[in-house]
Amino acid sequence: MKTFLYPEPADWAALSKRPVQELSQLREGVQQTFDLVRQRGDAALIELAAKFDKASLQDVWVSEAEISAAISQVSQELKAAIALAYNNIQVFHEAQREPVKQVETIAGVTCWRKSVAIQKVGLYIPGGSAPLFSTLLMLGIPAQIAGCQEIVLATPPGANGTVHPSILYTAHVLGISRILKAGGAQAIAALAFGTETVPAVDKIFGPGNQYVTAAKQMVTQLGVAIDMPAGPSEVLVIADDSADPDFVAADLLSQAEHGPDSQVVFVTNSEKQLQDVKAAIATQVAQLPRQAVAQQALNNSVGVVLNTSEEALDFSNQYAPEHLILSVANPEALAEKVTQAGSVFMGHYSPESVGDYASGTNHTLPTNGYARNYSGVSLDSFVKKITFQHLTREGLERIGPAVETMAEAEGLRAHKHAVSIRLAKK
Amino acid sequence: MKTFLYPEPADWAALSKRPVQELSQLREGVQQTFDLVRQRGDAALIELAAKFDKASLQDVWVSEAEISAAISQVSQELKAAIALAYNNIQVFHEAQREPVKQVETIAGVTCWRKSVAIQKVGLYIPGGSAPLFSTLLMLGIPAQIAGCQEIVLATPPGANGTVHPSILYTAHVLGISRILKAGGAQAIAALAFGTETVPAVDKIFGPGNQYVTAAKQMVTQLGVAIDMPAGPSEVLVIADDSADPDFVAADLLSQAEHGPDSQVVFVTNSEKQLQDVKAAIATQVAQLPRQAVAQQALNNSVGVVLNTSEEALDFSNQYAPEHLILSVANPEALAEKVTQAGSVFMGHYSPESVGDYASGTNHTLPTNGYARNYSGVSLDSFVKKITFQHLTREGLERIGPAVETMAEAEGLRAHKHAVSIRLAKK
């Protein structure tokens, strides 16, 4: 951990600079994958699964038999944990429903908006060492609450040709039955353009490697929406002397284990706390199975001492972290001042991992400074908010003259006429 | 107007196909503009204003004297119209505030989200023949309600070096004092990257020509958010025999006058209504100052007769129009079934132009089929929704074991440990 004592605000941005993502050199390869999937559909997916996933597939879709098998393979303990998480995520996202609220902006002019589900969505869950069934919960639950008509899950098969049981079980719990065995840019292509068996979707969600990220970026220019731009995961922890250094160290390490490019930032108003946390990290990291990964992330991590917790929060607001943990005696006061963060964890018993799995908040959050201008995934991400208006003749009489004047001033005579012709007829 | 009688659903998509936007050949030129603005800042903006706007600028910023002059140049009538529109837009967007709602997902686990303004936003208003002060209202009012700290307006100067009085007056009413005299890709570059006097913003809003559209698309890959992807404006009108063909014709023409690429679609369950509307269009178009433009758009417009209004609405849902006008006897029943549209106008006294100017709804809406997967601009567009959570020790005891189980199953031991270490200490 690189440490900085009392840096000046002008230097803050430089201390916690994020790595630059350079995806442009991937685009040509991704474009070739796109072309292949567009031209040959499922056959291309089968070919690419053999090439990249070492999987020999007969069919790109998970079968009912595979789902049944998965259900019996998942432990009761994990099923109970998923059920608890499901409930909390459901409760929190249900509360995000926006009721229709009719507003009479002026007598006779009634306007409202209504949330309507995006019809077809694709959820991408990466493969690799960790089966991210938790991400499937985070995407699938709001999709179900929104009422999306078609939910397609895409995830790469293992070398054995099937998908990890915990993913299949979670999909089953969510009522998602269309599960495509495809990963990487080819999965994004199949979801964006469709194939003979895959429906083209309106919006694609979920994390992935740099090819997935580049592919998602590219499809946004072809009419498909995505959840948000991606980048390496990150946490910023603010702690004062009330914090237990063992807890803080554990929180920093749970970010560091994500990957060598994970961003870990620690800010405190106490030099002693910084020393104690560093010592606790050294002890704890040795016990981790992903020690090598965590150590690499820690080498790039930053520890900053500032004068006060308020100053620490100013630092955090300029950094705009994906996750912000306020391990301080009075987190409420600091939380009030947060202007840029994805998700905020308050107090000594709110580690980031509760939000990653089971407290109810969504864990798909803006990274890479995007907390400045993007929200995390929520029910909003799965709906369009359509506006409606209804005017009575009296309402039109009331606002019509203003519309006529403004349309005339903008040189749009037919806009004016659409009002005038109505007001002229009795 | 090309007319189609009772086409089969399988053919609907082909009837109302939109023109393909091809922006990729513009990217190189836009990139050069980006490089120029990044390298030379305001000097580049002045140079490009001379080149593209034929304007000789001393300063890229509108002066207080220019604003004062504009205030005296705008008529009392227009000022009153703007005041009325302002009020209605304000009322409708104020109602979109989301109160903070704390949710106890399980005892001891409290989660909520809070809307916080995006700090720095850029509003782009195009120049050209029509001074779009109404768009400035539509973007500026929610930006003010959200509480954005920095609002920069960019709009190209006229050849006289200044900005249209109605734009400056509207900015004044909105309390926006930073008005940059820049248009095109150079304006987007200045807002995205900043110059020595322009602050780099977090999100850019507003319509523009194809260079602006390409530039906005490109900056999304560089960390800056935009309101939504752009395309030509469009309306779909559904009318039954209760509609007055003069009103319907006026509505179709008010879309057609926007530009030769405007998309105009008319769907009815009455062959007679189609004939009557066509006749009314022929009469009305002759009276328009923008007749040539409207005629070009009309040549590409589509009239479709289907069996019922319900079928007409199915047609509309597959088209996903920016604006949908329901000129039918019972618009409420049809409106219930709308799943894809930007904004819906119900009944015989709700022409699109009221929503364009003064009813209160926003007129920055998804075009080009993006109503499938994007919402129009609203207060949401100017905020991030940050999630918060606070767990008591008892709350952590309640969900901690589930978190431990799930983290273990995903192979993330440090995530598990952040819970275990807390539960282990008394």
From TrEMBL, chains A, B:
<feature type="binding site">
    <location>
        <position position="209"/>
    </location>
    <ligand>
        <name>NAD(+)</name>
    </ligand>
</feature>
<dbReference type="GO" id="GO:0005829">
    <property type="term" value="C:cytosol"/>
</dbReference>
<keyword id="KW-0520">NAD</keyword>
<comment type="function">
    <text>Catalyzes the sequential NAD-dependent oxidations of L-histidinol to L-histidinaldehyde and then to L-histidine.</text>
</comment>
<comment type="similarity">
    <text>Belongs to the histidinol dehydrogenase family.</text>
</comment>
<feature type="binding site">
    <location>
        <position position="233"/>
    </location>
    <ligand>
        <name>substrate</name>
    </ligand>
</feature>
<feature type="binding site">
    <location>
        <position position="410"/>
    </location>
    <ligand>
        <name>substrate</name>
    </ligand>
</feature>
<dbReference type="InterPro" id="IPR016161">
    <property type="entry name" value="Ald_DH/histidinol_DH"/>
</dbReference>
<dbReference type="GO" id="GO:0008270">
    <property type="term" value="F:zinc ion binding"/>
</dbReference>
<dbReference type="InterPro" id="IPR022695">
    <property type="entry name" value="Histidinol_DH_monofunct"/>
</dbReference>
<dbReference type="InterPro" id="IPR012131">
    <property type="entry name" value="Hstdl_DH"/>
</dbReference>
<comment type="pathway">
    <text>Amino-acid biosynthesis; L-histidine biosynthesis; L-histidine from 5-phospho-alpha-D-ribose 1-diphosphate: step 9/9.</text>
</comment>
<feature type="active site" description="Proton acceptor">
    <location>
        <position position="323"/>
    </location>
</feature>
<feature type="binding site">
    <location>
        <position position="255"/>
    </location>
    <ligand>
        <name>substrate</name>
    </ligand>
</feature>
<protein>
    <recommendedName>
        <fullName>Histidinol dehydrogenase</fullName>
        <ecNumber>1.1.1.23</ecNumber>
    </recommendedName>
</protein>
<feature type="binding site">
    <location>
        <position position="255"/>
    </location>
    <ligand>
        <name>Zn(2+)</name>
    </ligand>
</feature>
<feature type="binding site">
    <location>
        <position position="415"/>
    </location>
    <ligand>
        <name>Zn(2+)</name>
    </ligand>
</feature>
<keyword id="KW-0479">Metal-binding</keyword>
<dbReference type="GO" id="GO:0051287">
    <property type="term" value="F:NAD binding"/>
</dbReference>
<feature type="active site" description="Proton acceptor">
    <location>
        <position position="322"/>
    </location>
</feature>
<feature type="binding site">
    <location>
        <position position="356"/>
    </location>
    <ligand>
        <name>substrate</name>
    </ligand>
</feature>
<keyword id="KW-0028">Amino-acid biosynthesis</keyword>
<feature type="binding site">
    <location>
        <position position="323"/>
    </location>
    <ligand>
        <name>substrate</name>
    </ligand>
</feature>
<feature type="binding site">
    <location>
        <position position="258"/>
    </location>
    <ligand>
        <name>Zn(2+)</name>
    </ligand>
</feature>
<feature type="binding site">
    <location>
        <position position="258"/>
    </location>
    <ligand>
        <name>substrate</name>
    </ligand>
</feature>
<feature type="binding site">
    <location>
        <position position="124"/>
    </location>
    <ligand>
        <name>NAD(+)</name>
    </ligand>
</feature>
<keyword id="KW-0368">Histidine biosynthesis</keyword>
<feature type="binding site">
    <location>
        <position position="356"/>
    </location>
    <ligand>
        <name>Zn(2+)</name>
    </ligand>
</feature>
<keyword id="KW-0862">Zinc</keyword>
<dbReference type="Pfam" id="PF00815">
    <property type="entry name" value="Histidinol_dh"/>
</dbReference>
<feature type="binding site">
    <location>
        <position position="186"/>
    </location>
    <ligand>
        <name>NAD(+)</name>
    </ligand>
</feature>
<feature type="binding site">
    <location>
        <position position="415"/>
    </location>
    <ligand>
        <name>substrate</name>
    </ligand>
</feature>
<keyword id="KW-0560">Oxidoreductase</keyword>
<dbReference type="InterPro" id="IPR001692">
    <property type="entry name" value="Histidinol_DH_CS"/>
</dbReference>
<dbReference type="GO" id="GO:0004399">
    <property type="term" value="F:histidinol dehydrogenase activity"/>
</dbReference>
<dbReference type="GO" id="GO:0000105">
    <property type="term" value="P:L-histidine biosynthetic process"/>
</dbReference>
